[in-house]
Fold each of these.
Amino acid sequence: MRISRPVFTGFTAAAFVLASAAVPKTAAAQPTIDALSGRYIALLLRSSPELVPLSGIEGARQSALPPIAPETLNAVAAEEDRLWQDLKGLDEAKLDDAGRASYALMADGLEAARGLRVCNQPLWSISHMTGWQVTLSRLAQAQATGTPDAREDAIRRWEGLPAYADQDIANLREGLKQGYAVPRSVVTRVVGQLDRLLALPAEQSPFYAPARADGDAAFKARFRPIVAEGVHGALKRYRDFLAEEYLPKAREGIALSELPNGGACYQALLRASTTLDRTPAEVMAVGEAAVAQNVKDIIAIGGKRFGTSDLAATLAAVKDAPDNHFATADELVDFSKRSLARTTKLSAAAFQQLPKQPAAIEVLPATEAGSGVPAHYLPEPDPSKPGRYMLPLDHWKTETKGGAEVTVVHETIPGHHLQIAMTQELAAKVPLLRIALTGAYVEGWARYSERLAEELGVYETPYAGITRRAWMARGMVVDPGIHMFGWSREKAMAYLVESGRFDEAAAADMLDRIAVIPGQLTSYDSGGLEIAALRAESESSLGKCFDLRAFHQQVLSGGALPLKALRGRIEAWQMAARKACTK
């Protein structure tokens, strides 16, 4: 999983044409699309300043915190509307390949952002996954330092945290008045995160990272009280507010449908997450069909390996296999690092190139451990530094080797790291690609990579093939099941545990993740199934002319596009490849 703000989604497929299809360039329209792209990037960096260090865009100041006051959010919405109108005034047919990619990303992101206003998310922002106690502590660790301007930016930003926390508390109080309440289980997780942060001395806090990274003694002396008094004071106020005032009013349920406009909000979140115009029922139906096929495949594999045609017996045999478990947490870490080396070596056969940037595995920091934060990938804009797969050890005793190596593939190579690192290499032509990481494409590629790795012989254990199928597409069922179709927590937990991927503790973590990021879990297989379908269609269309390495290059070389734009790109490539093959 890559934890990120879902901002880029949707597009008209016919509008995107592959560069190799020999579309003539028209320079006249290009300055306009470039100007709009520049305005959009500025807006995104303003509304999500955590994107600045991730993007690698030079010159952007790092002195602000995300806007959460109603008046600033209204100003952001007004600029989104202006950009939307200006973008719709362009003639897409007059844009070159890079311009059409920028158009696709902007059109999709703006449509999603405008649709999500119905959710009023600032009024129920408490989250152990994306709450400010997590995202801003990471932002502090990514804060630029080392120059007088950078130091002043850091001081200005983190001096503002107390006011930021107070505004968030005011938003949450207003939310309670309007009927918005976060699940009790989530609030409890966040209080635990805050307790762990507050237990740290100022010098060990992640918020002190700017001073730790800077050798200037005067800066350290100025920054320490900002953390020890201002930041820790804000964390304490927020913690006490949640524990004493909010928790008694938190709700027991986890369905989004329990909130005002919950149904419309979930539809908007599905659209933002999947980049497709599917209803919750349609998403669920696609997921159920894929799960049914996966069950058939598992039963077939189980019959050969374990001599049983029963799904539960097959999954139990996988779970109970002594050689499928770890003796220590360190063994899980070492196994994952060996899996990274193996998948890096074997994946090369399926690609025209692998990214120059290395990938690394790090253990999730102690301040986030035990709170349900899952494995995730953190991009690194500096190509000389590795992108990082953050490995949690909360459930190492029940983690399986088959599950661990599937996750390594998903998060590193050929999954997130390969795709995101290659996208960053393309950003010179389409600057939006530095921050336009469409969830359905990014997670879809990682899910597709799990299947590809099996084809390439990456998995060492005989269990990974069953494990990856057991969970695949279930997110498309359980997520809308919870939020729109009345699934109880008990029914959802049973569905998760049935997959063999989760024990009850891990399933509880997943349920609270679904509660605070509705719709996001559907993006994985919405994208993965679409990429697999595009490959199958390409193989059928091109026959003996199909080249897997060329197909992957086309999927990756356009960057993280909305799924409709990706389909248009691959269909154009098919046409060009057929012509080239028949000459």
Amino acid sequence: MSLQMLLYITLSLWAMRPMAFAVRLSKPNCQEKCGNVTIPYLFGIGLECSANSSFTVSCRNITNPETPFLSSLNLEVLDISMDYSTITLNQPVSPLNCSLEQKGVYLGKSLSGTPFIFSRLYSVLAVLGCNNVVTLLSNGTTTAGGCVAICGYGSNSNDSGCNGVNCCKANIPLGFQAPQVIYRVIDSNNNNSSCGYAFLVDQNWLQNDYRKYTGLRDVNPFDKSFVKAPVVLEWRFPTRSSTGLYCEYRGPGPYYSGWDDQPDYDSLLRQCHCREGFEGNPYVDEGCQDIDECSNSNLNFCQGGCTNTVGFYRCSRSRVKMIFIGFGAGLGALLLLVGPWWSYRVIRKRIKSKRKQKFFKRNGGLLLEQQLSSTQNGVEKTNKLFNSKELEQATDHFNVNRILGRGGQGTVYKGMMSDGRIVAVKKSQKIDEDDLEVFINEVVILSQINHRNVVKLLGCCLETEVPLLVYEFIPNGTLFQHIHEASEEFPLSWEARLRIATEVASAISYLHSAAAVPIYHRDIKSTNILLDDK
């Protein structure tokens, strides 16, 4: 084979080589992984492979696969990200000791004297447990945040966002290195030796995994197996002269990493990053390599040909034309969606309307309208029939937090009407068809009752699955509560007790003798006697 032919084949093979080199993350001749964790430089397994002792990682043979530990803090390494300049460590967590007096405690290890800070973007202060007030301190004296966790049990405690029920969270300050808190218990009846946990933690863990460590339905909501949680740190370095760490050109031409100033923290502290369009490790020679956006359709917006350029790419077709094509396609898709969506809304509205009509008839609505329109009853129709939408809005869709009480005949909710009136909305039990006429007659009769010591029925709603009765709201609870839970704000003096008894007797006398149709209560007891603000 001639020399010219050999040279031609060699040059052809060189021209067809991949444009993207394998990105090297660690120093040459250094182990790049420990177990399942990649160890990029500045970090390294052993002092000779790391930037300095703060970034040295030891690979321990305590599990299979091996487990990496950050030697300077003696904590397990879960992840290292060069893109975000973060390291995630598995830190120990200890329970708080109950105390009604304020106590101070350090959370885990201090980062003072290291290039690491607790990440304000990815880590938060978390408090698991309840009836705890926890305050985060900055520099040992300055209040930097905190939160209060209250107790919640049963269905009302399903707070998956850690927003104050059995779990609360607070942001941490910039440049935070010494995690110290003061705390106290606000429940004097708590005799437990453990009152929960306070610790810095990765926000993702708090959002997805914390509930498996809190038995929210148990009296003591703590799991003794909970001993560790992940926390995210960032690293910074000051000047090239003091540490030997700095950002500089790494490779030919524009393959370089740049300064990342943090003016909101300290303009002298830096991080290195590869420029947009490059990837790799900016702390090693030729560590930032060009990304070939044309090799992956998810990395470019070209609809025709794609040509990779240094740090970016170029599409063969006009970008303006692509915009018009995309706009036209999007508009066409929108028009195709509008028709079915509009039809769905119309059909759904019609179904809801028919459903309301069905419930209205089943609950005796036609009979009630007939009774209300009858002049012999002397009952005005205005404000007697409420619609379901306004009562749903008034009770916040019958929120459990609006429940005033439950009884054998239904559940009572507190509501606020659009005109500002406070009402009590009673969701009745389902009524048998045989009892409909009796129920409607009672509604009509009760609507005519007008006595200052009898709770007034304002109206009803019959277009729901079960009837809703709307009463005036009596704000001061029941007589039973004031007898058995006496308070200084509302003392039950003998004068007040005699007045209550007199007014109850007056109401009963009116119902028995003065009402157009005699009404017999048949269940007079302290829980059925409501007290107003007087």
Amino acid sequence: MDLAPVIQFLSQTVPFDGLPRAALEQCAGRIEIAYASRRDKRIEFDSDNPCLYVIASGVFELRDNDGELLARLDSHQCFGFRALLTGEQTDAEIHIIEDGLLYLIPLATFDDLRHRHREFERFFNRQHGQRIRLGVRYDNHRHTNAMRLSKVMSAKVVSCGGDTSVAEAARLMSQHRISCLPVTAEGQLVGILTDRDLRNRVLAKAVDPEVAVKQVMTASPRCLTSQETWFDAQLLMTRFNIHHLPITEQGQLKGLVTSNDLMRQLDSDPALIIKQLNRCQDQEQLVQVMDGVPNLVKSLVAAEVSAEQVGRLLTAISDRLTERLIALAQQTLGEAPMDWCWLAFGSQARMDQVIGSDQDNGLLLAGEPNESQRRYFLALAESVCIGLDRCGFVLCKGEIMAMNPKWCRSLQGWQQQFRHWMSEPEPKAVMHSSIFFDIRGVAGDIELARRLQRQVLEQAQHSEFFLAYLAQNCVSRRPPLGFFRQWVLDKDGEQKAGVDLKHRGLAIINDIGRLYALACGSDEVETPKRLRAAMEAGLLTRKDALNLADALEFIRAQRLDNQHRQWLAGDRISNYLEPKSLSQLVRHQLKDAFVVLGQAQDGVKLKFGKQL
């Protein structure tokens, strides 16, 4: 059998596309090919010889034992991995809708790939753990989110040099029917000229069309590499409201992705809410747009987008909402009397917001304000905070908000506050102030936030007693497991008993990530990136860092699924999960995740025990 077509097919199928060439060749050599005919109606699984089914062609339907349609599967999708991971067959059935070919990968080969390639194993573990209720479904939307940009981008890109005249550049764009023109110098991307640039920087300002493109282009545009994903591109373009994204390798232009390219890959576009927010002219319109966010989350959960990606998308929306609320407030208040930066703390800073997240924010002012200036910024902050509350990001019960005068400060004032926290640490004060060490600039002069963060990192890294108190905070709450791995249940506001996924799970991992990031001087704010930084700095072993990252994603996914169920049932959204609502396998996996947290806390005690 000629293996070349099989290897080529696997190289375009997630997660095989991340395997080295040698592994693909080895896998292809062990594959069996089966023909599926509609006359057979459905796939008959061989329980004695389980295998992974990769669809080469044809259309199949996944139905539960009541005949309800769960998913439609086609080329480049997989099923059958539940049996390989657990030894248990699914109750669901695979119905053959259109004749097709299946690549059958035997259990031994599947296990070999899992053991030798961690990302391959993590992919299927997450697929199984996050959609245990469907057993074997692999949704096309997830395939889309993981698709590398090399498969989406236009590789044949028309470009020009910086000395090309604007008139000639416009002729090139018209001739090739394109809406942008990358600008290069010896193959290196130096800028981009778009239709918007021509309108706003040339026509609107009556600029001579014979001027050089380099005088009107967007210099140093945002870009990604071809190995990054469809989701990375969508998030970046959504966050910064851009429609053309150059793809580069070490600065060399390799391709181009447009918003239309992304739209063709998915029927629904989460960026639509961002676009609608940009057009809103008052808070009432913003509220109406944000009313659609729960439906967006519903579609993302149904498409099995990862919990990390959902959090980043929701945060991108809340960032843009904040910027729009600020712009609307300034239409009434006028321009700010000095430079400023709107700060996000907590989950918004870490980019892991969920439905019902409260707001934690502050204002950073370039200088010490006089009374008139202070009134301006407090009025601005009150308008924004009230607007965020109306749009679903509820007011912070602890009043960590920019409209609280305590958290509307000058750069010097913020620096003094952080110095106080670190130079005179007290356990209770450290616990309440730890959220401020997750800090990110959202709007205004972002460089002000970076200056503050650099000062905080420099001092924190050398403040042993402060790090010790942070470590004490990390171990003050234990995961919800007692002796013999029995559940420890808490009661929510309605006195319902459940596992507190936020405070006994996610908060512990976030605390550990924050501690290690400050200890190694990393400016990362997202917890997965902090764990990686700690690993690279030698504070965490690779195994411990990856285990914590896996536990974080799994617990996030369980919280997201649980909140999705609560929302569908019309219940109050909370972080409390009733273990009995889960299958036995997922309960076991959740306990394993909490065991990882307990072991990580023991590691914190070992590293910082001398100061505790």
Amino acid sequence: MNEPFNNENKKTEQLKSFIRDNTGKPLTSNEGIKISDDENSLKAGDRGPTLLEDFLFREKLAHFDRERIPERVVHARGYGAHGIFQVYESQEELTMAHFLQDPSLKTPVFLRFSQVAGSRGANETDRDVRGFATKFYTEEGNFDLVGNNIPIFFIQDSIKFPDLIHAVKPEPDNEIPQGQTAHDTFWDFITSNQESAAMTLWIMSDRTIPRSFRMIEGFGVHTFRLVNKHGKSRFVKFHWKPLLGLHSLLWDEAQKIGGVDPDFHRRDLWENIEAGNYPEWELGIQVIEEEDEYNFTFDILDATKLWPEELVPVRKIGKMTLNRNVDNVFAETEQVALHPGNIVRGIDFTNDPLLQGRLFSYTDTQIYRVGTNFQQLPINRPVCPVHNNQRDGNARYVIDQGKVAYHNNSLANNTPYTVPGTKGGFVTYPSLVHGYKVRATAPSFDDHFSQAKLFWNSMSPVEKHHIIDAYSFELGKVNSIEIRQKLVNMLAHIDRVLATRVGENLTLQPAEVPESTVTESSPALSMMNTRYLTNTLKVGVLVDEGFAGEETREVLEMLIKNGLKPVIISVRNGMIRDDKGDQWVVNASFLTTSPVLYDGLYLVGSENADPYFINRARAFIVESYNHFKPIGSSPLGEKLLQELGIAGKPGVVTNHSANVFSKVFTEAMAKQRFWDRY
């Protein structure tokens, strides 16, 4: 039962049993009728009307008409992959959850990344919160950790969720804008619901324009419980930490990439998994003892608050590796039904009012979108046996035998039977509930600005500059002067300098309001305090006819050895010759690519560079330099860097020895941005 190889492959084999390979097979109807003509409908004469009796035509068109299911109201734009999870050591002291006991056990997982605001057609580099939802196929049932790349949320009570989404979605009178928050209704909601203050700082930060799905954090957002075999409960928050570090785009890059490659993030994930560059995250937990629930200045059940890592450290307990792309995006990524209410024994809920509402909403959504029997679809089906008295419904796959479909019964010896908690059955933790029935928010949820100030204090000067620009851009798109002023006033409650700087960009003066007195910072919140690795970073290699082939090959081999991914770029696609007459494959032309798609550039050049090559290379270099990226050059290309006035600038590396150059340029690539160019 606990052999890691067998458990890991159980879900894979289950999915493969539904895979149909049509290659080399005869064309048939869905009922298996072999089709002799799929080009012409049945007509009364070759120019006559189509006949209703053409069952093949009816089946094909009727199925086509229904190929789309309703897209998700939120998180519609998504992409996923399969993988495995392994715990580092048994967590028996904290939880009974089976998948957190045995380090040799490989639990299959499916991870869906997504965007909150946009439709399925939105650009993937829009400024938006990213969904980070993981389905664990455990031997005791499915556990779904459904979260985001930000640890807090906009609102405290789920009854306000429809209002939030109505505000962030395109305005209904003109259906504008798509997948963006830079409009009146969103900021009207924010300024009218100041519990969102801290969340706005997060979404205006670089966290919402990530470099890659592989370089974002994931958070469970809510407070859950871990329960051990002795019935001891502790509060927990879940974190995913990317092994590649936490990295982002610049706003200008994000906008341009949206036009150059609106599928930028999914392409990056797909290509790297196909190449064997498997993304990895460590699962971390923050744990608070039940008796310490009220020992903080914030309410631990408030979803608009985080637990500062300096107060409650994150302990890394396991690792997830994505190692397989989907076989079919619709059947898997689109039909996967993720739900924060899917828990296993040893994990339980808390009274977080946002979580409590999601427990209803997600089930209701999946039944509406995917159908009554959505759990029976291959991507949603547990790896453990399923037995119950639920029957029928639309698109049922399971064929239940026997006449008994109720409990209690005597005809089937009262089966399927219940399982006591002592034998592995799920038992809800008996948390104490008391109080009058009221529609109210707990007073402990009332502080909306302290953690916003903590976040602001934790940012580096560069990050603060980006946040100010982001607020200024967003509010610059808001037509209502009143809403602009309300937001500037709200920012003044957080930090006077922040409010003043944003106000200056909008010719507004912040009101005289009480400012948060928080002076602490949390280094864990700054993206500058992250891993800096070269693994899978792309280098655009600019080459022209007659370039120094031997030297270039030597440099590129070293860069590849250091984990970088060189991409040959030239005037046209196809092949190009070096100075020895050897042919090289050109991966992209100046016309088909853009400098925003690369993490750095290496200018090779040639003795007699083509004027068009020089002009295009100049444009690539200037844009990359303005985006603070590393730029390297061979001796033949150094003249162009001098003409541009950037030779010797931070992050600009010139080649006088292939070995030394490769080392220095690799170090520059690992750093990724050279902010001292500001």
